[in-house]
Amino acid sequence: MNAGLKFRGAIVSPDLVRTARGVELRKELESHAIPVQDVGARTFTGLADTDTPQGIIAIVEPRGWRAEDLDIGTGKVLLLIDGVQDPGNVGTLIRTAHALGAVGTIVLRGTADAQSPKALRAAMGATFRHPVVTMDDSALITWARKNDVTLWAAAADGTPLARALDGNKGKGPIAVIVGNEGAGIRPHLNAVSAMRVAIPLAQGAESLNVAVAAGILLYEVARGR
Questions:
Q1: Distance between CA atoms of 100 and 216, rounded to whole angstroms?
Q2: Sheet of 77-82, strands arranged across
Q3: Which residues make beta-bridge pairs with 195?
Q4: Helices marked H in the chain — which ranges?
Q5: Measured in whole angstroms, how far is the alpha carbon of residue 41 from the centre of its chain?
Q6: In the chain, what are the domains?
Q7: Burial group, residue 108, by CB count within 10 angstroms (0-12, 13-18, 19+)
Q8: CA pair distance 127, 116, nearest whole angstrom
Q9: In a structure prediction context, what are the per-residue pLDDT tens digits for the chain, which is 225 residues long?
Q10: Is residue 111 a contact partner of residue 138, using CB atoms and an 8 Å limit?
């Protein structure tokens, strides 16, 4: 509701009004003239997608973000997701990008659906506020060149991040690419990236979770702009 999405309605179970927060939420829905349908606990459990639902299911119209909605410019940072298959990771990536001030997230081929239930839950509402744009590879490359967006590919054997940031302060937007949990970023995206950047790890550590890596990269790139 706070994000301004259009509601079709909400379905609630008896569990919702057993807490003060649930009572207030129902009042808020009704104050916005959002249709609320009561159902029994068994029916609600059959409709819910989780093992322990919180007593409410909302039916909303998601936003249709476009490349034109991305507020790119000097010093801006974006996230590109290439082939990340776990919807929980995708949702966490969107949540992280939103929290760290990225102007948007671009989702590339092979990536899990950002609007799937698991991805939406992992994003914790960020999907409703943070622009998430789906592009194919050719559209991304054309868009990046047209808008002077510099692509940085995350890679274990890349340039250490601190060194990569030297000389980039005050320049055009940077889009950080993170890739598939196992295979990494696809070769042709590495080829069109201006730089491959790495997070230095302690000896013996092989890798980071993709969302953790993205969080570090976005934070440091934004801070270093």
A1: 10
A2: 132-134, 105-107, 77-82, 174-179, 150-160, 195-198
A3: 152
A4: 20-31, 41-47, 87-99, 117-123, 137-146, 161-165, 187-192, 210-223
A5: 32
A6: 6-61 (no CATH), 67-223 (3.40.1280.10)
A7: buried
A8: 11
A9: 889 999 999 999 999 989 999 999 999 999 999 999 999 999 999 999 888 898 999 999 988 999 999 999 888 999 999 999 999 999 999 999 999 999 999 999 999 999 999 999 999 999 999 999 999 999 999 999 999 999 999 999 999 998 988 866 667 899 999 999 889 999 999 999 999 999 999 999 988 999 999 999 999 999 876
A10: no
Give residue for tokens 């230095």. 200
**Model-level pTM greater than 0.85?**
yes
Which pair of tokens denotes residue 58? 């909302």
